[in-house]
Amino acid sequence: MGDPGVGQLQRLREITGEQLAAYPFRAIGVLGVAGGNGLDLIDPETTDAVYGYDINPDYLDACETRYRDALGDRLRLIETSIDRSVRIERVDLLIANLVIEYVGTEEFAAFAAANARSIGVLSCVVQRNDAAGFVSSTEYSSSFDALASVSSDVDPETLTSAMSDAGFTALGRCEYPLPNGKALVRQDFRATPRP
């Protein structure tokens, strides 16, 4: 992801900064927080809580080590899978960057529907692969061969439709080309108020 020919990690950090700037809320959630890419962009003075969710305890430990000093007790890390059975804390902004490929569009929409009352704005990023494969070609790409078996391409239009069915309105969409010919697509949603 950080290879200069791929540029994904750097671009994803920039997008996270845009997400935080577009929705400067006090409670933020991050699905698939991993090691915390972009958490350094959160201003602890204007943020009351940062909830980081990830299935990998090693990633959560790395995130804890990197960001506990800066975020203090605001940082709350939760080990969990992301599916329709998970209930999250109330957040004004929920960031879900590059997790839908692993969860699947249908399951992610079901998760969102189950947590609609806990989510102000849901901002997510998916990778558009076009002709390239899911894992970019680098000297390390063979290390990620197993990812191809658990990931799936996410069509932005299909995601918009699934989120609409889950009770969310699309707020906007941006595309970010990568040096390797792929693109990251950011889509923002808000739960539709229930009558």
Question: Can you describe this structure?
Answer:
By secondary structure, the chain is an alpha/beta fold. The chain contains six helices and seven strands, in the order αββαββααβααββ. The protein has helices at residues 8-22, 57-71, 100-103, 105-114, 145-150, 156-165, and strands spanning 27-31, 49-54, 75-79, 91-97, 119-128, 168-177, 183-191. The chain has a seven-stranded mixed sheet, sandwiched between helices. The N and C termini lie far apart (43 Å). The model is unreliable at 1-6, 133-138 and 140-149 (pLDDT under 50).
Features of the shown structure:
195 residues; alpha/beta; 27% strand; disordered N terminus
Question: How far is the N terminus from the C terminus?
Answer: 43 Å
Silhouette? globular
What portion of the residues fall into strands of 2 or more residues? 25-35%
Strand order of the largest sheet: 3-2-1-4-5-7-6
Order of helices and strands: HEEHEEHHEHHEE
Radius of gyration: 16 Å
* Beta-strand segment tally: 7
Number of helices: 6
* Uncertain stretches of 5 or more adjacent residues: 1-6, 133-138, 140-149
